[in-house]
Specification:
The chain is mainly alpha-helical. It has five helices and two strands; from the N terminus they run E-E-H-H-H-H-H. It has a two-stranded antiparallel sheet.
Length: 182
């Protein structure tokens, strides 16, 4: 069995219900979300903080749900694939639970002190890119579900606080952006 179809060799691909060019902004967003999911997977593979694996796999599954919703055009999307606000509520609760274990400084922090923290910070920046793409599509009317943008906004916050939890667990502190240059 081949794992490729060659249908995209001419620069087009399928949304469920419509054939579009691969440079369509909806395909760009799906690519950003796929990259975010993979980046989160890398962070998850390195994470050692107590509940990080559980939180990150749930977030990865949520991203698949979002991608499933976005893969359809409006006229063919089943109502059962509409991403719900309860997942944003879950994220907010998850952020709060991690935040109870980490005291954040009021200053900017420098990513990169731990492998897991650095990977989660990369994932956070990829999620932010996906969020910007989603906002642009929502402004054009191509995304009608505001929960997608809310979720991506909160997801970047979860990744930030988990990265700090990883840094504190391994180093005992987070590194501030202002400080000695050495």
């Amino acid at each position: 069995m081949k794992i490729y179809t060659a249908r995209g060799d001419q620069g087009a691909t399928d949304l469920l219900g419509e054939r579009v060019r691969k440079d369509d902004p909806r395909i760009d967003l799906l690519g950003d979300l796929d990259e975010a999911n993979s980046s989160i997977g890398l962070g998850r593979s390195l994470a050692t903080w107590e509940n990080a694996n559980e939180l990150l796999i749930a977030a990865q599954r949520d991203l698949y749900q979002i991608m499933a919703e976005l893969a359809f055009i409006d006229t063919t999307r089943p109502d059962s694939l509409r991403f719900s606000a309860d997942r944003v509520d879950w994220l907010e609760g998850s952020i709060a639970s991690v935040q109870e274990t980490v005291t954040l400084p009021r200053e900017f922090v420098v990513p990169g002190d731990t492998h897991a923290g650095a990977a989660l910070d990369v994932a956070r920046t990829v999620v932010r890119r996906a969020e910007r793409s989603a906002v642009a599509l929502a402004e054009e009317g191509a995304i009608g579900n505001p929960e997608i943008i809310r979720y991506l906004n909160r997801l970047s916050s979860l990744l930030f606080i988990l990265a700090r939890a990883e840094d504190v667990k391994e180093r005992g502190e987070v590194r501030l952006a202002k400080g000695e240059a050495n």
